[in-house]
Design brief:
single chain; disordered N terminus; alpha+beta; elongated; five-stranded antiparallel beta sheet; seven-stranded mixed beta sheet
Amino acid sequence: MSGLTWRSVAKCLATLLPLLMGLLSICCGVEPSPGDQKANPEPGQILHLTCHRDNNKFPEPRSALVIGNSGYTGDWNDLGGLPQNDAIDVAQKLCQLGFDVTLGYDLTLDKFKDALTLFKQQQLVSGTELFYYSGHGIQVNDANYLVPLAVGADELSSKGIRLEDVYSSLDDTSLGHQSLMKIIILDACRDFKAGSKKGFSRPDNAPENTIVAYSTAPDSASSSVGGNGQNSLYTQHVLDYLGEPGLTLEALFNLVRNAVYEASHHYQTPWESNSAFTSFQFEPPLKIQDATWQAPNPDDLVIVTLNGTPVIETWRGQGADTKWVSISKYLHPGPNSFTVQVYNDKTTVGGQPLWWPGAKREGWRYTLNTKIEGTDSGSWSESQDVPDEAHWGTLFEVLHGRVLVDPVTGQVRMEDVIKVPH
């Protein structure tokens, strides 16, 4: 003990600290959030990302294998690091969406096979499994191949990764039933130097309960660079919609297809093969704060429209019995526009005929009451009891504004409510 110094103690603690932190994470469940870990794999490396899954938000297990191959040589165009960016961005987004993520970059044949084998060994019993690939991919003799690094175009039949190999890593027939929802996203088919046919052939027969999304149509090439300069065109738009609340897979890929088709000036048309039995959403629907409106005691008719849809139509005579109407189902994340219109009926005060001595054309009146769950209520009203010659017998706008829905929390608030001058 006589040789013990503060320097040696500090060195010992520096060695033990990572081990203690690891034990703490295992014993106490301490783990970094997705934003705390920057995925930055070295070429040939396979990383397991530390992701936190909110069990209330994502009750079913989710697992993903994400691979990006960029550093091609020989027969293949170097893709300039874009597939690496694609894979890292997709991996981190999936991490945020409750997936357990394994990430590989610039994988040779052996490493690619290792990643697929590991993914198969860790297969879920239930839930959703996803495979994403960004890199070169082509067809040879009508068979579709993903291209590992250090493989020539004439070696693909023996050294390429057949699409069936990916299917096998996701196949859950050993469980006795097709219990897993399986998603395969292939951002491949870039132009290359070798003279083989462009793109993939017609989609293979994927396992049951599987959706296979291709970056482009059969026998076609896809664009390498998207408009943001960071990702491929296809992955850029996949990332745009991946976390959109409430989007089904079919709706998501339809939005991606339209965006890519327009951005590529009709050159690239993404494609899907779908045998899914179940519906899946990457992000569950946003729970929008409850909000209700009421338009009591109108004179003569009040119509309240939200995002172009009439949600309240109240006539004179319905009075104070007017019920509160929930508007939450009409709202979407972001700004929602509303208007209030009044119809000034051709009547006179007291109901006398217009020719009656002293008869006065009746005015108009409206009230819009609002209640938002957990916040203060609001009310807007206006009346014009004097004769209104200009609006007699017409429907006209008296109020407009916006209902803002926070896209993350679902909280609702009224904004920019303006009375229209008359």
